[in-house]
Predict the structure.
Amino acid sequence: MPAPANDWLLPGELGPMTTEAELAARYGKDNLREETLPGAEAEPIPALVLFPDDAGKRLELVLDAQDKDAPIQELRIRGAGNQWHTADGLHPGMTLAELVERNGAPITFYGFDWDYGGTVQDWHGGKLANPQGARLFRRVRLAVREGAGDIARPLGDAGYRSDDPRWPGLDKNLVIDELGISWPGEGD
């Protein structure tokens, strides 16, 4: 059962209270599978995955590790070529240069080769910043573009600006690897 074209927009009609039965009815139960994904510090996290065997349509719905019946915690998309995107056009495979251009300001991201490596931590007041108290929270994680080889890149638990002259070429060689959308709860 194919999804309508506008269904690739995130979060679209998907939200924290979307049930497994609703997903099965909308996308077909054969297009839905329970999986365990790797989390931070190698902690496994449960997920419902739409189109699990189709990299262009794969959507991961992260569940609460303590209570799989609790509301969905996050929607995740990964991999260049994935059809899912946000209303402002963010999608896996988008280069750092394109991301900064859409933001209208530099960004700061964590260095690579650790659990949170490549995660954008500061939008410097740009258009893509998560507004205080917003209904949705967007998380973006960068990675080295496939085929870029072993390029020089910042490493470790520190922030690096996209306009740092010490890292030439990152604007074209880093891409959005993972995009996550979550719904902050009370007190978050």
Remarks:
- Helices lie at 20-27, 96-103, 170-173.
- The chain has a mean pLDDT of 89.
